[in-house]
Write a structure and sequence with these properties.
Elements: H1 2-24, H2 30-44, H3 57-76, H4 79-91, H5 98-119
Helix pairs in contact: 1-2, 1-3, 1-4, 2-3, 2-5
Amino acid sequence: MLERAKRWARLLKRDVMALWIAARDSRTPWHAKLVAGLVAAYALSPIDLIPDFIPILGYLDDLIIVPIGILLVVKLIPEPLMAEYRAMAAEQARQTSYGGMIAILAIWIAIAAALLWSAWPGGTR
């Protein structure tokens, strides 16, 4: 069972890299390119929407959002192109998405700013 989990994790990592490649390829349809870029940026970002230290929820986003996003994009990209992207991804090393990190940081900063503004005396006038 542990070996199956390791294999699944390797395939997931390869598919995330394939999505990153697909998002930057001009042959990918624009709607698939958009979703592929979002899923890859989220998956490669060193910062999660829900931090991993939050019990259960911190890992659920990685276990649900990323695989569902990958499945969606795989259905949007023609099969021969996806096979090519997967082959290219298998050759590349993992990259960190700074764009994804910035997007997630921006979301957290916006939430913190909204909470501070609403808690500040006279902030809800």
